[in-house]
Amino acid sequence: MIEAAIVGMGRWGQTLVDSVQNRNDAGIRFIAGSTGRPERAAEWAARQGVKILPDLNAILAEPRVKAVVIASPHQMHADQVIAAARAGKHVFVEKPFTMTKASAEAAVAACRDAGVVMALGHNRRFLPAVAEMKKLLAAGALGTLLHVEGQFSGPGALSYQPGMWRTDAQESPLGGMGGMGIHMIDMMINLAGPIAEVTVRSLARALTNGMDDTTAGLFSFASGATGCFATLAYAPRVWRVALYGTDAALELNGHERLSFTPRAGEAWVKDFPKTDIEHAELAAFAAAVTGGPAYPLPVEDAIHGVAVFEAMIGAAASGSTYRVA
Description:
By secondary structure, the chain is α/β, with parallel strands linked by helices. The chain has helices spanning 11-20, 38-48, 56-60, 77-86, 101-114, 128-138, 181-192, 277-289, 299-318; strands at residues 2-7, 28-34, 51-52, 67-70, 90-93, 118-120, 145-153, 195-203, 214-221, 226-232, 238-245, 248-253, 257-262, 268-271, 322-323. The strands form two sheets. A nine-stranded mixed sheet has the order 14-13-12-11-7-10-9-8-15, with helices on one face. It has a six-stranded parallel sheet with strand order 3-2-1-4-5-6, sandwiched between helices.
């Protein structure tokens, strides 16, 4: 059982801890944490047996802590990953990994140099339906992949007030990208491979808290496939990813319902069981730390996802198409 600390004890940090705490099948247990507002987390931390320490330095000085899970504001991630790695702690970091490709590369290099595991929290990779999509793609069931569509939207930004870090354009550029859209970017990379070019529009049509509510993009993949994407921060919750090939189309609506439509032959729809994807990702991290299978998100994909995000920010600001570095 790996003993870990949580950095950032807001809503999402608590969600991560709650998914594994006191569960023997997880392989990880949280014993400590830090947060900018300890008074808000005190009752929850006491209930979960998590000792609140003053800051990251105090966590890194705690010899019992072997792994650090980072759920802090986006701009902090790179420095915190590097500090944890240099202290010999394994690192699980929430998305967005970092905010620039250069800082992502530096964070990965620090983990490699220290010989510690670095895992990124793109939890939809752990959906059984996504594993089925990858299996069908690998088997050639879609023929040549022509086009990818993705949308991850929801109304969460309605609760963000002006002045919160999530409404700060430096912390949350392109509206819902940091909280939602970056997950779909990773899913598109996971299914269709590297993204070569992006064109993006991002604007506020309804929100007045400083965030964009509508962000949409056109992508070109290195394979030659095209793609389109949207994340709406003031809309009903939608998760949808679709793949269109010469022989068939494959569409995941929500996390569990997968449909297959062939050009010729019989279509099908399959419902998959609900999965605790937060538990799954942290259990996979713990397994990788203890010598089990490698964490199923290559660090190269983690870096590429940041490079795509960085290119999207530039493309939206300039109104032009950006190559992904």
